[in-house]
Structures are given as C-alpha cells and as structure tokens.
Specification:
about 375 residues; alpha/beta; two-stranded antiparallel sheet; 14 helices; 11 strands; about 15% strand; binds S-adenosylmethionine; rRNA_Ade_methylase_Trfase_N; rRNA_Ade_diMease-like_C; RNA-binding; KsgA/Erm
C-alpha cells in the first residue's frame, strides 16, 4: 500500500484527483493509460464533489461503479457510502486498486469482468462477500449466499405460482444490493451499460454517470428533436432525467477529444393506459416497437415497422410473464415469448389501429406512452 500510505489530509475528496497524483500512481505501478479502454481519469476534485452531490450519495447507499480506473472517484464514493462494488476489465488495475483503496478495503469489492458481461449473480456475490457492515448478510454465511443467489436468479420452479420464494428474501436482498450506479463510464460502452443495467438490475434506483455529451443529449432528448430516437424511448421506459452538468476535457488525464456531461437518471415505473404498472413483457414489447419505428426514421411508422419486421424471421422477446404486473427485470428465459417477423409485418395495420395510432406518423412524433400502447397491442396480437 505504498500509495495509500502517502495520502495527506488536505481537504480533498480524493487524494488522486490531480494530474501529478494520477501520474504518480501509474508510475508506481509501472503502467500507462490505455486509450482503447477509454482511460481518461478524473483530475478535478470539484467535479467529484458535484458527482457526489448530484447522485446524493449517503451513508446508507450501496454503490455500483463501472470502470473504477485507479480509484479516483471510488475513494470519493467510499467516503460517503456504505459500500462500493466496482466492475473493471483492465487486468492491470486490480493490483492498483488494492493499493489505492487499502484504507477502505472492508467496504470495497471488485468484479474483474467486462461490464457488459456482468450478471446480477456477480453483483450479489460481491455484496455478500462484503459482509455485515454493509447491510449484507455476513460473508461467512452460506445460507445468506444462497438467499442472494435465489433472489436474483429465480429458479425454474419460480415460474409456477406456488413455487416462487416468498417476498421476504427479495426484501432482504434489496437492502444489500447496490441501489445506485455512479460512474465515470468508458465512453465506448456507456449508452449500452446504462440501458442494460436499468433493464437487468431492478435493484438500481438511479444512475449518475459521466458520458460523452452527445450520449447525454440522446438520453435527455425531447420528442420530435433530432436526438430523439429508439435509445431515448427505450431508456425513457425505465428512467427519467433528474439533472445534469457539463464537464470539459481539461478535467481528465489525459484529456479526451470530446466534451462530457454527468447526467442523473432516476428509475421510473411506466404506467399503461389502464393506469396499472406496465408488466416487463409490455415494456420489452414497447422497446421492440421503438427499434422498429426508428429503423428508418424518415419513413412512416407503418413502412419503417414493415421493413424491420419483414427482415427479422422468428425471434424471442425476453421478459415474458410479468405476472406481478410490475415493471422490473426481464423474466427467466423460459418465459420468453416467440414471434414471427413476417406475421407481425402482415398484422401491422391491425396492430396500429388497435393502438389508435395513425400509421402515417413517423417514429419521432410518438411519446413513451404511445410506444407502451403499441407494445401492449403487439402482445395482444401474439
Ligand atoms: C473513463 S475511465 C474512469 C476511471 C475512473 N473512474 C475515474 O473517474 O478516474 C473508464 C474506466 O473503465 C474501464 N473500462 C473500459 N471498458 C470497460 C468495460 N467494458 N468493462 C469494465 N470496465 C471498463 C477502464 O479500464 C477505465 O478504468
């Protein structure tokens, strides 16, 4: 812990938030920054403070961080939160993090993986490993481990009404799993990570993430604008924008070639036209209709969807059952619904009519609610 031993109590949120401290860590470990992994490390303590404030990180929060790098933002998070679980794919960085995060090692766990391959099981295991101080069941308890595993991965028998575990383990686990994603994301995968994590990890209540400015613009785009597309619609079915601020290239080492923004998204539960929370299957179907509607954004809804579905063959839609009627992660793969693209293409006029949507409209004129209605119509036709 050569680096951690030299931390001065100088009022900084993170002792690594300067170019010289960052260089010193890299030199101490004989490594450089990797452009291919989007390694632009934060070197401005004020930006860290603004991230912590926007994410509203407090002592009860359990944080999921993607791409901790050398631990600059991680230290700021660890000073405020109950625990941090981070996901990092650079094999050179675990040793660095063991050094820089040494004073907080009891409440930090690392998942050494590509962020796009991380499962809820990986996260549950990491949290259980952290133990009782973080609000999780003790790391020595194999029963607790089993509770966590079952609660995030419903077993086969959970697909029958009688076989589902009682809601209590879910509640226990909810108090243990990360409730906030806070990250300076690798820009190459940032948009995918945010949408995937809202879709796959229902325990995440919010995401406060540094992304390329253009990605933040797509996340926050208003209907009818050029940035409004399938991604905006899909993300909007899971989350709503709760704040953002701009960050220039000079706040990173090395400076990226693009402007950045930190954006906060809060999970939302969309409600169907009947006023009930949309089931996962309806949300998944609405996402599919968004992809179809924007497949060719200059075409009418009817034509864009027809081209999209005609070329798709048969496919499965995740998130089948939705039997609790609530929004959440897609259900088990066994619950997937199967569709034939050509059959949907043929049914499109009826589908659009049932949804009460003019087939001559273009995708960019539809709001999230209308996509939900289209998703429900698609399921009704299945
Ligand atoms: C922009 S840097 C952020 C570093 C640090 N959090 C900070 O703010 O200084 C992005 C980090 O994500 C890591 N990374 C890149 N691609 C990744 C992936 N697919 N999965 C997990 N981590 C990844 C990089 O190695 C790097 O540590």
């Amino acid at each position: 812990m050569a680096v951690a031993a030299s931390y001065a109590d100088d009022g900084r949120l993170s002792p690594l938030s300067t170019p010289s401290a960052t260089r010193a860590v890299l030199e101490a470990h004989g490594i450089g920054t990797k452009y291919t992994l989007g390694q632009n490390f934060l070197v401005n303590d004020d930006v860290l403070k603004k991230i912590i404030a926007l994410a509203d990180v407090g002592s009860a929060d359990r944080i999921l961080e993607v791409g901790p790098g050398i631990g600059t933002l991680t230290i700021a998070l660890l000073k405020h939160a109950a625990a941090v679980v981070a996901v990092e794919r650079d094999p050179d960085l675990p040793a660095v993090l063991a050094d820089t995060l040494y004073p907080w090692r009891e409440k930090f766990a690392l998942i050494e993986k590509d962020a796009l391959d991380v499962t809820a099981d990986d996260i549950a295991s990491a949290m259980v490993e952290l133990g009782a101080d973080t609000g999780c069941p003790d790391r020595a308890s194999s029963a607790a481990n089993e509770t966590a595993r079952r609660a995030v991965s419903p077993s086969e028998d959970c697909l029958s009404e009688s076989g589902c575990p009682a809601s209590a383990p879910q509640g226990d686990l909810q108090q243990c799993l990360p409730n906030k994603l806070v990250s300076n994301l690798p820009y190459a995968v940032a948009a995918t990570v945010v949408l995937d994590y809202f879709q796959q990890f229902p325990f995440l209540e919010s995401a406060t993430v540094m992304v390329q400015k253009e990605v933040a613009d797509r996340m926050a785009a208003e209907r009818g604008t050029k940035n409004y597309g399938a991604y905006t619609v899909k993300l909007g079915l899971y989350a709503e924008v709760a704040g953002r601020f701009a960050v220039g290239p000079g706040n990173f080492f090395p400076p990226p070639r693009v402007d950045s923004a930190v954006i906060r998204l809060n999970r939302r539960t969309p409600v169907t036209a009947d006023g009930v929370p949309a089931a996962p299957a309806v949300i998944a179907a609405a996402c599919l209709m968004a992809d179809a509607a924007f497949a060719n954004r200059r075409k009418t809804l009817a034509n864009s969807c027809k081209t999209y579905f005609s070329g798709r063959g048969t496919f499965a839609l995740p998130g089948g059952l939705g039997k609790e009627g609530a929004a959440g992660a897609p259900d088990d793969a066994a619950a997937a619904l199967h569709f034939d693209g050509a059959a949907i293409a043929a049914q499109l006029p009826a589908l659009l009519e049932a949804a009460g949507i003019d087939p001559k409209r273009r995708g960019e004129t539809l709001d999230q609610q209308e996509f939900l209605t289209l998703g429900a119509s698609l399921l009704a036709q299945a």
